Every structure is written in C-alpha cells, then in structure tokens.
Amino acid sequence: MSEADIMQMMNMLKSEISTSQIFGLLANQAGGYEFVGYSPRDMYNEITRQRRQIPGLLRNLFWSDGISQLDYQLFGDVIAFDAIYKKNKYSCPLVIFNGVNHHKQTIVFTAALIVDETTDTYIWLLHQLMFAMKGKTPTSIITDGAMTISNAVRDVFPEVRHRLCAWHLIRNATSNAENPSFISKFRKIMLGDYEIPVFKLVVRYVGSRYDLTSFVEHFQRCVAHLRFKEFNADYESTCGVPVMQTCIELLERFAAELYTNEIFLLFRPFLSRVGSMRVLNIENNDDCIKYIVCNHGRPEFLWTVEFCQEEMIFMCTCLRMESFGILCEHIVKVLVDRDICEIFRLLLLDKWTKKVKPALNDPSGFSRDAVVISR
C-alpha cells in the first residue's frame, strides 16, 4: 500500500465517505478489485493505524458508574482484568476489570477502550482505577499473564498478589494436553462451579459494527443484565430459608440466615461431612487448644485445628478459610464438639453474607458519580 493510497483513504474519511465505500472507489480507480493490491482487511488495519497516530484524537477511554464503584468498595479485594479484541468499530482492545459478588456472580467494576497494550497504557489504566475507586487497593489481581500487564501491576501495585487466570490456564492445558480425562479433572480442580468469564457474556451484547457511543451503550446493557441477575439472587436469598438437611440443625439454620443462598449451598456439604469426622486428640496449651481431627476410619489423614479462646480465633491446617472465606469441616467439627451453635464474627467473610451491601457505611462521603476519563 503506497503513501498516496493512504493519503487518499484518509482524505476520503475526512469527507465522511464510509470505509466500505472507500475500497470500492479505490477498486474503481484501479480498474477492478483484483488490481487494488491489498485486501479490505489491510485497508481497515491501515486506517486504524493512521487514526491512532493523529494528534488530539481520542486514544484511551476509561469509564465506571456509581454502582460499579460501590461494588468495588465491597467486593474489590480480588479483581481480574484482561483484554478482548475487535468488538468495536475501531478494533480497539476492550479491558474489563471484574470481580465476584456475594452470590459468586460476575460483576463489572470498570471498563476501558485502549489504543494499544503497552506497559505504559496499562499503567495509565491502573492509575485511573485507583482514582475512580478512591484509592482502594485490591489484595489480589488475576490476569492472563501477559508481560505488559505483569509489568504494569508490578509498577503500580508492588505489594499486591498477582496470580494467573484459571480460565487461561485451562485453555493452555486444553491446547497442549491430549488426555481428555486429565483435562476434565484439571478443569474441575481449577474452576469448580465458577461462572463463565465475563467476556463470553459481553460478546452477546456488543459487536464490531458499533461506533464508540453505541458500543458503550450496549456494553452497559450487558452490565445491566449482570445487575438484574444479582437483584434476583438478592430477592431469593432474602425471601425464605432453605430446608434444613443435616443433623446439626441449629448451626445449619444460623448459616442459612447469615449467608446468601449460593454461599450457603457451598457451606452445607461441610456440615454434612462432620458426621464422618472425629477428634483424635486434644492438646491444651497456655495460649490455645489444639484439636487433631481425621476422617472416620482414616487416621492417616490428619488436620490440626487451633482454637484461641481469648481472641475466639480458629485456624485449620487445611487453610480453606484463608483460601475461600468459608469454614471447613474440621473447624465445624470443633464447633460441634464444643457445642457452639453459631459462627463467630472472626470466622465470617463479610462479602459472602446477605447484609454486605446495607452494611456499607462510608463517613468520608463516598460519591456514586460516574467516572469517565479519556486521553
């Protein structure tokens, strides 16, 4: 493609001739489509490249509304972000920062259209995230492992734990492993019953034909769909209590009234397994009591639960509470052994409870105004 062709294309664009019409005009000048010397895709790519080089032209767009900012204050301890390509008229990468709410549903914190995926661009994005979210830093960030993203995270959040996305790990395993049984087990271990990535939902609402304004509008329709799912889940969790199914009814009922339905259904199997657990030994120390717990008939598999009476703290060597924020069957066994019929405050992760949103109280005057930043 010659410089003259490029100049002619850009002049036609300035005259408000559509991109599809431009290729037809160039083909007419050349005497036929076969004589143009490049494909329509080559022309689209070159136009995109030229637009990105125009001074004063919009390069990056970042937006977040008030509800997303509120969600971040509650659920922004762990965030994930990645780029999805060519879902808008200009083929700009779309970056979505998302997390998980109290129903284990995907929620969107913010999104951005960027001109490139350089480290500098991602650094700019992360700084805008901090500005929009009043400076709150996440504890963990999950990405696809791209080097530019990793460098940006290291620069802006040096103390934050950076982990790879399970979905990308599964995709790599599927591409490189030829054992279906291994892939199935690997997928189950990595994902469990997690929701599909937010990108699979986004593509249902946005398409490459949309201009900037239409794209943002349709993207917000996708976000509205996610919020409607959360609204329904809130209603189902608030109205009614699940039928009790275990023999530890008081503790089960306490958990049902405390957790959202989705989290309670994750927790109840641990209650059910308590019947197959037994305490092998109890060690009384000055600071805490140690319980050695095992499965019935399987004394070779041991877990140690430490209970500090003064602080009312429970810790188990399985680390499920630290990993998922949900009590393990070993701690529940100790609760039952001590005839405790409630879950102590220190054993709760607020984000999994029904009252997490009404509990938000920000005396600093948290603003729900939408944030739109461009450069």
From TrEMBL:
Keywords in alphabetical order: Metal-binding, Zinc, Zinc-finger
One function term, GO molecular function aspect: zinc ion binding
InterPro entries: MULE_transposase_dom (IPR018289), Znf_SWIM (IPR007527)
Presence of the UniProt keyword GTP-binding in the record: no
Keyword DNA-binding on entry: no
Domain of life: Eukaryota
SWIM-type domain boundaries: 301-339
PROSITE patterns: ZF_SWIM (PS50966)
Matches recorded under PANTHER family: OS01G0519700 PROTEIN, PROTEIN FAR1-RELATED SEQUENCE 5-LIKE
Protein name: SWIM-type domain-containing protein
Origin organism lineage: Eukaryota, Viridiplantae, Streptophyta, Embryophyta, Tracheophyta
